[in-house]
């Protein structure tokens, strides 16, 4: 999957507002939900093609564990 194939992205951490604006200006639907439990985050990821979080986030593994079969991890890792 290429970045061009993304339609909906979840922002799960507190990020600079410009991150959301850049994604929206690029045509993506952006959902921002912070402080989700692990179960809530997994549920939200089922409806998203992308996840934006801070690099120090210890829950990045949830993408690999629950979504990567549909959408492999891309970008800065």
Automatic annotation (TrEMBL):
It comes from Pipistrellus nathusii. This is PHGDH. It comes from the Eukaryota.
């Amino acid at each position: 999957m290429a970045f061009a194939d993304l339609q909906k992205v979840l922002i799960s951490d507190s990020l600079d507002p410009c991150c959301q604006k850049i994604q929206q200006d690029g045509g993506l639907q952006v959902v921002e939900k912070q402080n989700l439990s692990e179960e809530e985050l997994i549920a939200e990821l089922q409806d998203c093609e992308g996840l934006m979080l801070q690099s120090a986030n210890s829950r990045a593994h949830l993408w690999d564990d629950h979504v990567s079969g549909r959408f492999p991890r891309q970008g800065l890792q």
